[in-house]
Amino acid sequence: MASHGRKxxxxxxxxxxxxxxxxxxxxxxxxxxxxxxxxxxxxxxLPISSVTSVNASSANxxxxxxxxxxxxxxxxxxLMKVYNTNRVGTGPTKIVAQTANDEFEPSVSMDDFGxxxxxxxxxxxxxxTNVLAARFSNLGVKVGPTFTVAGSSQKESQxxxxxxxxxxxxxxxxxxxxxxxxxxxGHYSSKAVLQTTTIxxxxxxxxxxxxxxxxxxxxxxxxxxQVLYNVYLKRYSSTGTVVGVHTIDTQVTLQHQxxxxxxxxxxxxxxxxxxxxxxxxxxxxxxxAPISTVLFRTISQAGxxxxxxxxxxxxxxxxxxxxxxxxxxxAMNRKDGDFALAYGYHHEDEFGKSESVNIREFxxxxxxLSQASYNVGSxxxxxxxxxxxxxxxxxxxVSISGTGYITITSAVYDQPGDPSDETDYGKLIRHxxxxx
Length: 436
Known about the structure:
Blueprint: E1 4-7, E2 20-21, E3 32-38, E4 53-57, E5 63-70, E6 76-83, E7 94-97, E8 102-110, E9 116-125, E10 128-136, E11 142-150, E12 155-163, E13 169-176, E14 181-188, E15 194-201, E16 208-215, E17 221-227, E18 230-236, E19 242-249, E20 252-254, E21 257-268, E22 274-284, E23 289-299, E24 308-314, E25 322-332, E26 339-349, E27 352-362, E28 368-379, E29 391-393, E30 397-400, E31 405-414, E32 427-434
Parallel strand pairs: 1-24
Antiparallel strand pairs: 2-28, 3-32, 4-5, 5-6, 6-7, 8-9, 9-10, 10-11, 12-13, 13-14, 14-15, 16-17, 17-18, 18-19, 20-21, 21-22, 22-23, 23-24, 25-26, 26-27, 27-28, 29-31, 30-31, 31-32
């Protein structure tokens, strides 16, 4: 694991509570979140691991939420809801993908005018997946047909899309077989015409996974990815020339313990400064339980990589405790480089379990501005279910509009009553507020 910088104060959520703010310094400014709302009208599909929700925001203040939804025969469809500059939903839920195939792993981006591009993975056979994409207007009206990003006999999946201000866009994806995976980026015009392809990393004896892509208004872009348990970042000029390759964190062994960094998320501002966030974990030898850490590093436009900084750190304090972080997602205010980082937190002990979505805001130098925690599931073990949880939360997603509003979404399952009553759970929750 890379050396850590200043350790921020942590908090552990163990009982339900309202949105709160933990002030770190006297100059900390609260995040002005205006509350939460439910996005979906139908219960989300089970299990929770099958659900993905993502969101994007535009320079003009619009935003969009995209998620997977239960379809016929256990397959998943992809749905979308658009929000106007007042953060109010515009019209009904839109269908992005609804076919005989299982559609999953959506990624979404918006250009400066609120136009939308969505990419996703489709299961075309028992042994093959392809990547598809579609464009939509700022009102969620489909523009042109769905098109194939990658449709070979190889497995292509895990797309990540990033739009430039003018509407041209990039789509990154993995390709290869189960043992050898690489990453490509397709460069598209605003009309979805493929211009060129960039190979980020070719298939090797290792597996390249989890590409995360971001692009600024000038067309510069960054992609984060992992190879086994090693996290990397590549920076590119607007013409697609590599301007920097950075090792962010690597798997190391210390006192017979493996530190395993994974799940990178990246963002870039209009000056070319970028940030990458990830999680790293190992097993505590005393309690044989996970030790989990959320970290980030900043990279200047000149390629100077800042030190690894700990966002939050959790380790067990008793033999009953399990604390893990998951799914960090980072978004930048493109004007000044301030950024927001959202991640999920899971805690359990002998009394029960709790889930929360945590959000922290930083200035461009990596100094924390504010932090808040949404407790989205706090509960005891379900005796009738043999100790199964009654609530859980899926990976959060965060974006920042050009008007400074932050949008956070996460899928939540809440079963306060009969576990067979699906109306009690399967909610996609959206938080919105302004601080930047």
